[in-house]
Amino acid sequence: MLFLQSRRCLGQLRLEQILPHYISSIRAELADRWRRWAASLTDPEKYTVVGALLARQVTLASQMARSPRIWNAHIAPVILRTMVDTHLTLAWILRDPQPRARQFILYGLGQYNALC
After folding, report:
1. How far apart are CA 22 and CA 66, in angstroms?
2. Which own/partner pairs from 23-26 qualify as long-range (CB within 8 Å, at least 24 positions apart)?
3. Concatenated DSSP letters for the chain?
4. Taking Cα atoms as reference points, which of 38, 43, 26 lies closest to residue 98?
5. Pairing with 10, which of 2, 28, 51, 108 sits 20 to 30 Å away (CA)?
6. Whether the Cβ atoms of residue 28 and residue 67 lie closer than 8 Å to each other
7. Distance set, CA 97 to CA 50, 61, 78, 92 (Å)
């Protein structure tokens, strides 16, 4: 029993060492990609939408990484489903960014107006 407890402690220690590095790495990757992408002031919608979706992915991933206690069969699928939806939306927009970013914004505004 002591062996299993010590292995768990070692696993937890490794996890505590890895997660901060992972979180800082994904944030640095987002910042690097954002800097490399030449934004155009004539087409701000595309950059705003894509940037927001990428930032959402990083936020969800980093928040989930910070909270290993929610890595269970009840909470993790909810977060992962949100990340999959965000990924699919981003992939759809990037196929034709100019009109689809605008469609994404208009869809969101329509949803908001339907609630009001």
Report:
1. 10
2. 23/62, 23/65, 23/66, 26/58, 26/61, 26/62
3. -HHHHHHHHHHHHHHHHHHHHHHHHHHHHHHHHHHHS---TT-HHHHHHHHHHHHHHHHHHHHHHH-GGG-STTTHHHHHHHHHHHHHHHHHHHHSHHHHHHHHHHHHHHHHHHH-
4. 43
5. 28
6. no
7. 8, 24, 27, 8
| Domain-wise residue ranges, the chain | 2-115
CA distance 106 to 20: 37
The length of the chain in residues reads 116
Q: Where are the beta strands (DSSP E) in 1-116?
A: none
To the nearest 5 percent, what fractions of the chain are helix, strand and coil? 85, 0, 15
Instruction: Show the tokens assigned to 92.
Output: 């759809």
Tens digit of pLDDT at every position of the chain (116 positions):
434 444 455 455 677 788 888 999 999 999 998 888 877 777 888 888 999 999 999 999 999 999 988 889 999 999 999 999 999 999 999 999 999 999 999 888 767 666 66
